[in-house]
Every structure is written in C-alpha cells, then in structure tokens.
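User: My advisor, Dr. K., asked me to get a structural model of this assembly before our group meeting. I'm new to this, so sorry if the format is off. These are the inputs:
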Amino acid sequence: MNLPNYFLADLPPEAPLSPEMIAAACHTLKRNREKFLRPRPTEEIIKILCEVAAEWLSPENKFRKLALKYGPAETGFSKPVLEKGLDGFFRRFTPENFRTLLEQELGHAARLDGFVGGAMARGPQLLVHIAAGNLPNPAIISLALGLITRSAQFMKCASGTSLLPRLFAHSIYELDRKLGACLEIAEWRGGDAELEGALFAETDCVTATGGDEALTAIRSRLPSQVRFLGYGHRVSFGFIAREVLRDDTIAEIVAGAVDDVVAWDQNGCLSPHVFYVEERGAVESDKFAALLAAELAKRETVEPRGKISVAAAASIASKRAIYEAIAVHRADAKIWASQNSTAWTVVFEHDVRFQFSCLNRFVFIKPVPDMAAVLRGVDEFQGKVSTVGIAASPEATASLALIFSRWGATRICSLGQMQNPPLTWRHDGRPALGDLIEWTDFEL
Amino acid sequence: MNKELSSFAVRLSELIAVGFQNESFGSLALELFTLQFQNNSAYRKICEARGLTPQVVEHWTQIPVVPTGAFKELELTSLALDGRTTVFHSSGTTEQKPSRHFHSAESMAVYEVSLWNWFKQNIFENSEIGIQNPEWLVLTPSAEQVPHSSLVHMFETICKKSGGVRAPASRSTFFGKVGVDGAWILDFEAVLTALSDNSKLKTQNSKLILGTAFSFVHLLDYLAEKNCSFQLPLGSCVMETGGYKNRSRSLPKTELHALITKHLGVPLESIICEYGMSELSSQAYEREVRSQNSEIRSFQFPPWAKVQIISPETGREVTEGETGLIRVFDLANTFSVAAVQTEDLGIRRGDGFELIGRAQLAEPRGCSLMTA
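Assistant: The format is fine. Below is the predicted structure of the whole assembly, which you can bring to the meeting.
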C-alpha cells in the first residue's frame, strides 16, 4: 500500500511490538500533545477535521482510493457499501454540526478554550481507544472527538481491522503533521497483557467497544485512577406502524428498511435484527416481507454484500435450513432467500419474541397486532437496545418515541437512518464528548 | 408398521452384520428415500416443496436433506404414534426445545447393529490399540437415569454386546450422575477407586474409558487438583465424544489428549474421537487415513453412512481441503430421515472429514462484539 511508517500499524506484520515500544510511543504522544495540540483553539481543530472529511468525500482523494481498493479484502465490505457508508459518515463533518455538538455537551462551544460562565472543560492527557470490529465509523468518530478535547490518542485495533482508522490518521497527518503526531494507531490481538499493561500504565482515560466479557476484562486491568468508558453489546430493531403500510407509501418504507439492512451489511449495533410490522395495514405484513426480499435482491446487484467467513455463512445456511423446513409446514411462516449464495435472507414469522439475526443481511419480519406486542417481544432485552427505527405517522411517532424512551431504548430514528446517527448522537445513551472531559469550576 | 420399511431394516441389519459392501449404498439409499417419502409425511412435505420426489431423484446425492434443527420443530418419523417406544433428545441442558428422534423396537435394532459394528471395528479390531477384555468405565450416567440420551444408549449397547466387565471394586460401569440442575456430573471418588482398583495386583486388566469431552475435563481437573496420575495397563483405551456444551471449560483437542496421556497414561494412539448425534444412527471415528500421499487424521463414517462437506455459501460440495457443513446420508436412520444436514463444520479429507465443530453463532464484524 506504500504508506509511510508513521504509525505502529504501518510496520510490517513481522515486526513484533514490545511493551517498551508502546511506552515510548505514549511518551512521544504526550510530548507532542503539549507542544502541538493543547495550545490549538477548538475552531482550528474543527476546521481541520472538516477539511479532512471534505477530502475523503472527493473521488480523487488518495486515502479514499486506498480505502476502496484495499477495504473490501481487509474489512469484508464491498466497495459500494464502503463508499456509501463512508460518504454518509463524512458528510456529517461540518462546522455547524460540531458546534451543535459542543453546545449540546458542554453548554458552550468555547469551553474547551477557556472559562465561559465559570466553567472550563479539559480532555484527557492520553486517551486510549480499544476499538473493535471492521466498522470504521465508531473508531473514526472517537479519534475526531479526542482531537477536539486536545487529547493525545492511542488507538488499539483488533487484529486485522486497523486499515480504515489508519488511513484516517494518515489523512490527518498529511493535512497537519503536528496534529497527526498526536495520534498513534496499532493493531494486536486483544488480551495481550504485556502490551496492554504498558499502554494502560500511561493513560488517564480508556474507551472500549466490545462484548460484555471483553469490557469487564479490560476494566479489571486498569489502574484505579484511569477513567473507563465501555460501550457494550447493543441490539436494534425497527417498527412499522399500520397507517404507513399503504400502496402510496410502501415503496419508500421498504427502501428505508432495506437501507438499514444493507448499511455495513447489518454488522453494527445500530443495524436492525428484526422489523416489527403492524398487522391489518392496507399492505399486509407478509406482503411487506415479500417486497423487502425483492428489494434486497435488487440491492444485491448494486450494493453487494461483502465476502463472509465460512462460519458466518454456515450460521446463515443453518438458520435458513430450519426456517425452510418450518415454512413448508406452517402457513404463517415464510422465508425468502438469495439463490446459490447467502447474500440476503428474509424470515417472516409470527412469534413476537425478539430474535438475534445472524446478520450479514438476514432479517426477521414479525407481524404484531399492536405496539404492546412489540414491548412484550423485546422485554428480555431491556437496557440492551440501542436504536429503534420507526415508520409511522408524525403524531404516532411522537407517542411511540415516548413509549420506547421510557422503556429504555437509547436512540429513536426514522426507518432508513438507523446506521446514520448524527454527530450529536449520544453513544448508548451517554454523551460521547461530554464523557471524555473533566471540568474546572471557577467560582471567584 | 410399514412392512417395506421393516423389511428394509432387517435387510440392512443383515448387510451390516456380514460386512456392508460400498457398492450397494447408492441403490439402497434411493430405495430408502422412496420409502421415507411415502411413509414420513413431515419429510414428504419438505421434499415436495423442493420439487424433489422419488420420480426425479436419480442419485443419492440428490436426496433432499433435512437440517438437524428441524428435528426440534417437526416429527420427522415414519413411526406411528403408538409405535414410538423411545425418543432420543439432543443434549444440552439449556435447550428449551430439544431435537426428537423417535424409535421403535425395530428402529432401535438397526441403531444397535449400526453402532456396535462400527464401534467394534474401530476400537476392538483396531490393531494399534490391541485391547482385550478390558474393564469398562463409562463417564456418563446410566440409561436408567438418562433414558433420552442416544449416546448413553450406545454405551449401554456396546457394553452389553461385548459382555462389558466392570472394575472389581465398582458397582457399575457408569460413573456419571445427573446433578440437581440436570447437568451430568461425575462420581469422582468412584472413578478414582475403579482406576486404582487392582494396582497392587501384578496382572492388571486394561481399561476402556468412554465419555464426553466435558466429562474428561471434569475428571482431569479433579485428578490435577488431587495431584493424581495413573499409568493404565497396556491396551487401555479412551473414547471421547461430543463438544463441551458449556458444561466445562473448552480445551483444544491436542491439549485434552495430552492431559489424558499425562493423567491416565493412555498413549495418544489409543485415544479415539467419536462424532455422533441424536439425529443420526451411525457414528464416525477418527483414524489415520491416507490422502494424497500423506497420512492424515480424518473422521470416517461406516460404509452404510456417507458424508459430504457442503459449502454453506453455495450449497455445493466443497473440494478436498476446504471447509463446509457436514452432511450425512445414514441408512441406519431407516425410520426417520436418512439425509441429515448438521450444523457442524468440517474440512473435507478424503472420504471423511476433519472436525471443526459447531458453526458458532456468527459474531458481527461491526462495532460492538469483537475485540479479539
């Protein structure tokens, strides 16, 4: 790929990392932060982030080209899926959006630069991110927020997943070397006690995404003064109300639902496992499922699903086989699936209980008599639900939002936007920027 | 009871007993498919939905398969309600809805002939082990305690058929118990007594220890804790089967076998792995086979059960060395469904496979599940 060796992740795979290298990298990061990052005004950082994003949106940008060239093999997402995902993401990098975020989380956009109304915010000295998975958005947004809080940052990626964060860090470096010198990207298999011990000894704040067990393990190994922000496993689902299941609206509803399934091949925690569809609409729930299947087939030709592992394909094939057998015997169960591939699957069944999908574009459609049935179906997952994507009339949407919010869902959005959260999104219900900073109150 | 199926069962049992000829598999499979299509209504519906009827199926590889998971949902049997004398359930204590494989006296007879003959060939007639008149230690509960376990029924059957001898100081050959939560546990003290049984005698009997992988882990952990090791006599043999099902920590196979050698003194070549499940009536044993000019270890079903490794992506058979889902056509499943699609992954090795295991619930590659 011929990227210069700026980051540990740029080293050839045969070059082993040592705890000393990690410690030395952390010391350099902290020194660079003092010199190059801490004195910079917020406005300037935001300007750079927006410029970098604008470059990523340009078809000629070299980092974008590299991401699209090497991404499919490295991340498992097809080029069109990567393209669409990255574009949607970087378009949100605007000065207005960042200002709104700062105002939302800090009460005033200038509070990282000085006292405003007796309060000033300050980011960690060295912020460590334990990033998981191939989905680049959470990693990149973490780096952006860390820069805004003027923190030196060390991002540890899961093995085989550093490509996109690394390209993003290079793009920062190219635009502003001093800023880039405050970032480090490395990749190793999680749980390496020596490397992680060296890293955790240098940090004052750690963010981590991962399964509950992985998070507990990380937390247990942190020195007590280190702040820990863990983002655990979350699931999402959609709800489509009867009043929008009409002939004149159905195409739009189906397209939105398919957008949510196709985005990042359904691999994020904001991706829907299940769509609950209210019965007795002008378009019935099984018709909706059939239309969804047809649209998924169409999308496959322009935004194909990426290559998946044999194990992932096996779990799709196994689940499909069971539902195919059931569908033969029960009139109220149906399945639609791509031929000669596992590219997409739609299962229609009456059981309202929330089901984990095997993802990679495998979605359940569950008809429900009403909203109360949805709450019964997802009951077991209270506190574990990230996003509820809703398609309903404006009046109904407001009351549905209230119900889901009281129930504990942390994000409610329009169908079609589930994988497209705004910059102001509170990650798993927590202020993403606000949780990074510490305050100084000035009371004189 | 359907006469044609019954006579097929009798014929198959006879063929197995005299040494089943590979060549007869294809025609028998097609014959059985026709009978199962006629007599097993749940299966017939699946075949019809796929447009695969006896009129169009020309080769055994075209016979419609049912997934093991369908045994949970459907009654995949040719046996009438009043003919079902036994039902085997899939293992796992947490499963709300287990697989159900129904049996009658006739189908049980086929099961027993099948399991006994292949066990015999792989254990008793295995010259590498050289086992003779062993004492039996079975690390599962007895069939009386777990009547729905096809594995335990298998152990009981081979024990009976071989005239299984128990260790002198033991009351039984079965050393497992059912715990309060339904999980299988071991009577450690009794195993210890049986193992150390006649160690003072000059001539010791060899031992045959049968159990699940998790029961061996329980035993080995116990022996390690007690700082206890045995050197079982020459000709002793261990047969381990099944996954861990979250009933113990999981160990890579090489590690488990090394620990068995360390604590029981049974050499690696006398540790035999078995692969079976309640939805099948034949089992595969791991053995050294020659493939493409090299010796490899591979699981082999008996000649009356054929295996294919299927690409989950395309549904087609994979090529040598590739990974896919294990599919078995088991003639001994005479009264249920012969063509079974498992959820286990294997690597195609010759006409057998190297076992990888249960296709794990695929974890999302996205933001939230994977920090490895």
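One thing worth pointing out at the meeting: Chain A has two domains: 8-233, 235-414.

User: Perfect, thanks a lot.
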